[in-house]
Design a protein that fits this description.
The protein has 697 residues and is of the alpha/beta class. Helix content is 55%, strand content 9%. The protein contains 29 helices and 13 strands. The relative contact order is 0.11.
Length: 697
């Protein structure tokens, strides 16, 4: 860092990113210089004696060689200068842009010589070249010159930033506007919320997502390689932190089981069971993931397009394909749920609209409301609405709470209100659990719903669905006092600390090792940015050396190998102080960025030890979020619902696959084992065993 400034605009690379490109160009130009010398040595006697135009061809060869040789020298100078200093010592590389200007002039001269050679080859020297039998050799040099020039221009185009002339915050809006246009999102009917529609009209279809990136990366003049280097440094530090200072206390004895459970095995069995219900909510997407050959047709269908994209032309086609029936069929096939056990399916999906289904769990005498997690672009926009809003204290039976005590994730609350309104209209839960008679406008339910009177209500979901499940339970608890909530990998910033305490008695959450999304919130993003800048400041290596070490010896690197806080350069600390000042001003101008929110309920952290064995630990939400994001190799994929369900299923040592399965009791065990959810969980379990053992505590 900072980004290179050439021709009055910022580029995608900084000066210390150039060693590898320059080394590649030096290799190409060295080989080409050798080739031109060989051609010159072979052809100069023949051309001098064969014809009068031979001197022009020789002059062209000599000039071409001179261009490449001077270019080779400038690349060596750039390489030497780019390796000077640490990552946050740009002053030692301040002359690199001037040498690049010289290099560009040399490339222009090379282009001129190549054009001149083409004219000689096709013009008056053609006969001379034929007589001297050097025509093919000269043609090879000309074609090679064009290829080398093309190689240079491809390199420059990869460095070019289309929006490099714009301020940092505007740059992200333009990038996401372009993405939205490519995905037809500019023509999408995105929301019925007037405030959301106004913001989308002002900033584009992906404006909320662009705003997140703009806020996080604003104030630090970093390029992608700086972020990669900083994340690598954090990964080294976080690896030692995870190994030496795990969070919470281990769940070892049966007495450690969460209330009302008396044994750990029973608790894990329920965790595994309801994680499969959460996994089943993904419907056709889960079917396509588990069956790529059959799922390809679904993935390319208008229904899939409307759920993941949302342009109007796809909307019209999707309505003709009866998406509700498609999702019901996929849901039944994925989860093995019988038609008479599936009470209601909502496939509406937009900003603040989460798909969900209601079915009965015969084995556990429960009615399950399962909410789908993030899958579509609209869901991503809902996720990005992370700044808190106020919950109605009266609506959740907490009239004594005021102000920030009622803070909740804005996108999650929007999705919760959508489901609440839908439940109020269709009265499915009232007809099943409370035994109320259907009224006008209610959704029809199967006759088997009458058997569910006085059953408990269980709400579950994964990712975004888990956050919605927790907030939904606050609204439904008064009407259904026996409800339980199973949050599988909930987002990090969902509820205030006070609301988390309120829902603890009935809410259970899991976090899979270093899952990125379970730690995601405004404060954790700010902490990640601050930690990244601190790591770059304390790095004692230049970027090229650091990236090479992490590539070839990453898992063996120690903190002392790459960081030296005491030896940080004066220029580095000055840049860090400037960034800290900016961050403080930014939070002062937009305090909701730093508003603290936490994952809901009682947190069970599925901690993976160094030997690959899992050790579940009970963690307090505040302690968990204060540590921030843990950068590790699998921190993204560990969020996948099938991986979490596999770990929970293996931890449930006393439970069998049949008890964890969500298929109906009337379904034979042979058919039960064929449900896609069960198959996918078993496949993920086998992959986890290959990577490391599961500790059946």
């Amino acid at each position: 860092m900072p980004a290179l400034r050439l021709f009055g605009r910022q580029w995608l690379l900084s000066a210390d990113d150039l060693p590898l490109p320059m080394a590649g160009l030096m290799l190409v130009h060295t080989l080409w210089c050798v080739l031109i010398l060989l051609v010159y040595e072979r052809a100069h006697r023949t051309l001098e004696k064969g014809c009068s135009e031979g001197d022009d061809v020789l002059a062209w060869l000599f000039g071409t060689f001179g261009c490449y040789f001077i270019s080779l020298c400038t690349e060596a100078i750039i390489l030497h200068m780019a390796l000077r200093g640490r990552i946050l010592e740009p002053g030692k590389r301040k002359y690199v842009p001037y040498v690049i200007y010289v290099h560009v002039l040399i490339i222009c001269a090379d282009v001129a010589f190549t054009v001149y050679g083409t004219v000689l080859y096709a013009g008056s020297s053609a006969a001379c070249l034929s007589r001297s039998r050097t025509r093919a050799t000269v043609l090879t040099v000309i074609i090679g010159n064009y290829l080398v020039i093309a190689f240079n221009f491809i390199g420059f185009s990869l460095m070019f930033s289309m929006f490099g002339h714009l301020p940092s915050e505007q740059k992200w809006y333009k990038i996401f506007d372009m993405i939205a246009a490519m995905m037809c999102l500019n023509r999408r009917e995105l929301s019925n919320n007037a405030d959301v529609d106004r913001k989308l009209a002002e900033h584009g279809a992906l404006g909320h997502i662009a705003n997140c990136f703009a806020e996080v990366f604003q104030g630090a003049d970093v390029v992608p390689s700086d972020i990669a280097a900083g994340m690598g440094l954090l990964a080294i530090q976080h690896r030692h932190l995870i190994e030496n200072s795990p969070l919470g206390k281990p769940l070892v004895e049966n007495s450690d089981a969460l209330s009302p459970y008396t044994t750990l095995h029973t608790m894990y069995d329920d965790f595994a069971h309801y994680s499969r219900w959460a996994l089943a909510a993904y419907g056709w997407a889960l079917f396509a993931w588990a069956n790529p050959s059959k799922g390809l047709g679904i993935a390319c269908s208008p229904t899939a397009c409307i759920e993941c994209c949302g342009c109007r032309s796809c909307t019209k086609q999707a309505k003709q394909h009866h998406s509700d029936n498609l999702d019901r069929a996929a849901l039944k096939q994925c989860a093995g749920i019988e038609s008479e056990d599936l009470f209601y399916v909502s496939v509406a999906n937009g900003i603040g609209e989460a798909p969900y289904f209601i079915a009965r769990d015969v084995r556990r005498k429960a009615v399950v409301l399962s909410i789908r997690g993030t899958l579509s672009i609209a869901d991503c926009i809902t996720d990005s609405m992370y700044k808190p809003v106020m919950l109605n204290g009266e609506a959740v039976n907490q009239p004594q709470m005021k102000g920030q005590e009622l803070h909740v994730h804005a996108g999650v609350l929007g999705a919760t209100n959508f489901i609440l309104a839908d439940l109020e209209v269709n009265k499915v839960l009232e007809q099943t659990i409370l035994g109320e008679a259907p009224s006008d406008g209610c959704a029809p339910v199967p006759s088997t719903a009458s058997e569910c009177k006085d059953w408990k209500l269980v709400i579950t979901g994964h990712s975004l669905g888990a956050g919605v499940a927790a907030v939904l339970s606050l609204h439904l608890r008064k009407k259904f006092p026996n409800l339980k909530v199973w949050c599988i990998e909930p987002p990090g910033g969902v509820l205030s600390a006070e609301l988390c305490e309120v829902c603890k008695p009935w809410t259970y959450s899991t976090v899979h090792h270093c899952d990125l999304f379970c730690r995601l919130s405004g404060p954790s993003l700010l902490k990640l940015r601050s930690d990244l800048m601190e790591s770059l400041t304390n790095s004692k290596l230049n970027k090229f050396s650091l990236m090479m070490r992490m590539t070839f010896n990453g898992t063996k690197l120690q903190i002392s190998d790459v960081l030296d806080a005491a030896g940080a350069a004066t220029e580095s600390t000055a840049l860090r102080e400037n960034f800290i000042d900016f961050a403080e001003r930014q939070v002062a101008q937009s305090p909701m960025m730093a508003a603290k929110l936490y994952p809901p309920g009682q947190l069970v952290h599925l901690h993976r030890r160094e030997d690959g064995m899992y050790e579940p630990r009970l963690v307090e939400a505040k302690e968990f979020m204060d540590r921030g994001m843990m950068v590790q190799a699998g921190f993204f994929t560990e969020h996948f619902p099938d991986k979490v369900a596999a770990v929970l299923s293996d931890l449930a040592a006393s439970g069998t696959d049949a008890t964890q399965s969500i298929t109906s009791m009337r379904t034979s065990s042979q058919n039960s084992s064929r449900s896609i959810v069960d198959t996918l969980v078993r496949q993920s379990s086998r992959r986890i065993y290959q990577e490391g053992s599961i500790d059946n505590v």
